[in-house]
Amino acid sequence: METKVNEIAISYSGNLKTNQLPKITSSQNAAELLYGQWNKNNIELHETFKIMLLNNANKVKGIYEVSTGGITGTLVDLRILFAVVLKSLTTAVILAHNHPSGTLTPSEPDKRLTQKIKKAGELFDIKVLDHLILTPDGNYFSFADEGIL
User: Fold this and answer.
1) pLDDT surpassing 90 at residue 131
2) What are the start-end ranges of the H helices in the chain?
3) Which parts of the sequence belong to the MPN domain (predicted)?
4) Most buried residue, 17, 44, 95, 106, by most Cβ within 10 Å?
């Protein structure tokens, strides 16, 4: 009897050329790009966690929504996050989530998650450049700018 298993196919599809990709030069630049891509119909309803995937020149390969949660939190599965990062051959990421309440202060769970992702990224030589908290009105908090990354 022959044993059969599923074949796993991994692909990344991008239709923009490298010279067309936006370059991230600051936390403000990243926050504006992320906010522009956020669904304004639900940014003040529930938390969503996204990652901005960057190449070695800090050009944006894409933005991926990792999870959507409730009013005060969302569960981030690091295995899914890093599956996307590794699949896209990303060398750096910017983490982002929204606070529907409009509060810019990171919670202790926000800080712990950031450190956990940063530590895991170091194993793969993937840099966590920042973690941004966005509010419904477009304001942001940058972990990197505040020296807590």
Assistant:
1) yes
2) 27-37, 78-87, 108-123
3) 23-149
4) 95
**pLDDT (0 to 100) of residue 5:** 83
Q: What is the pTM of this model?
A: 0.89
Quick: pLDDT tens for 49-99. 999 999 999 999 999 999 988 888 888 999 999 999 999 899 999 999 999
Q: Which amino acid appears at position 39 of this protein?
A: N
